[in-house]
Design a protein that fits this description.
Order of helices and strands: HHHHH
Radius of gyration: 21 Å
Number of domains: 1
Number of strands: 0
Distance between the termini: 65 Å
Largest sheet: none
Strand content: under 5%
Helix content: over 70%
Length: 176
């Protein structure tokens, strides 16, 4: 019963997030909540958890998401510097080595957090349940990467379409 309630709440959360922020931008924290809900629901089904266990899992995942967020932001900011350096930005080239070190350090800390979260979630589980949890997280990570790749492709296609429209506008203006 509670699983069917989650199935209703997840899309509802997406609708609320889509309507509460700027156009095409989810409300702050909405994506994290959706990810957590999908993880909780998936783990609850994979491990056949009770409602109380699913609530415990949700709280644990939320606490680790909060700890993970600043590290993810560090990786993203460092990656921007590295990208600008690779593109030839002189100021970024001077910062590239430091940004790379920050990125690798943050990624190492993220991996440690993931292991800590896995161990925390695995307390009280059987070895078989821990194995199922490991498989679930591996599949979930693949789903997240695929989703991100589709989002990047959509964004790139939209940018290309906008550029084509702008070029068409220039051609129209030149013809007049």
């Amino acid at each position: 019963m509670w699983r069917s309630a989650l199935l209703v709440l997840i899309p509802l959360g997406g609708v609320l997030a889509a309507n509460s922020g700027a156009p095409n931008h989810p409300a702050p924290g909405a994506v994290a909540r959706q990810v957590r809900m999908r993880q909780v629901l998936g783990l609850a089904e994979a491990l056949d958890l009770t409602e109380a266990d699913a609530l415990r899992v949700s709280q644990i995942i939320q606490s680790f998401q909060q700890r993970r967020r600043p590290l993810q932001e560090q990786v993203a900011e460092a990656a921007k510097v590295v990208k600008r350096a690779a593109d030839g930005d002189v100021a970024a080239v001077a910062q590239a080595d430091m940004a790379l070190n920050q990125m690798f350090t943050a990624r190492t800390q993220l991996a440690q957090l993931n292991q800590e979260m896995f161990n925390t979630l695995g307390q009280g589980l059987t070895p078989q349940q821990r194995a199922k949890m490991a498989i679930y997280f591996a599949k979930f990570q693949i789903e997240v990467r695929d989703f991100q790749a589709r989002q990047r492709a959509r964004k790139q296609a939209a940018t290309q379409a906008a550029q084509a429209l702008n070029e068409g506008d220039v051609e129209l203006l030149e013809q007049q």
